Amino acid sequence: MKPSAQGPAGTGTGRVRTAEPTGSAALREPAAPVRVPAQPSASDVDQDRARGAVEPAGARGEHTHGEPPPPRPRPLVQRSSVRGQVLDALRTALVSGELRPGEVYSAPALGERFGVSATPVREAMQQLALEGAVEVVPNRGFRVVERGDRELAELAEVRALLEVPVLLRLARTVPAERWAELRPLAEATVRAASSGCPATYAEADRAFHRAVLVLAGNDQLVRIAGDLHRRAQWPPAGAPAVRGRADLIADAHEHTALLDALIAGDPDLVRTLVGEHFGETR
User: d(Cα 114, Cα 98) in Å, to the nearest integer?
Assistant: First the structure.
């Protein structure tokens, strides 16, 4: 792996470069480097034992008569998923419009941006390619897919076909107290919308819808609907990079209104609100 020519994160320009010399989009805010925490060595463990940091067998009152000595304690491995963190950051950049449709981004340049090597960036981009967010451009990098209104409308239609019947069935079978447990998630979407940050709202929005579908007890439904929901949140080509704060707030209040109707056990109002919520491209 070739280290970044810019040195540690924070000493470079703070921009994402494409593989092309000019015309690339820049991520506006520098991101904190992704680091894996250092692991304790065997000698560190020995020193801890010498200082009494490791309790001997029976120190807490366990019976040890006739028992073999316990195995030598091994240091706990604590690894943070660099690839996962980079993937989350790239997904956020897609929703916020910082990774722009039609633009090509190289793994080394993005790796410099995040303070990591190109390898985890490339792996994360390959996952986004499987999800349909980007496409591989040989010898250059990855192009953010340009999507039109028709694709977004199709995604909204498929989401409605999956989620609406399930939600209407749950409205008849789930007791009010279970719906009331979702109140914090619905209110979290309102706070996220008030921030005006589309990426923050997108995460809260998915969390609420996921919690609703989990009540159906169908893991495959939750997984497929979640994937469709995430794809529906990517902005289309030629559209404003982000949804306006007012639109986000209106969308969030639909969650709280729907939850109120579910708690009240009003099936007619639930049907109306569900239709309105899925009646527009999300």
Answer: 14
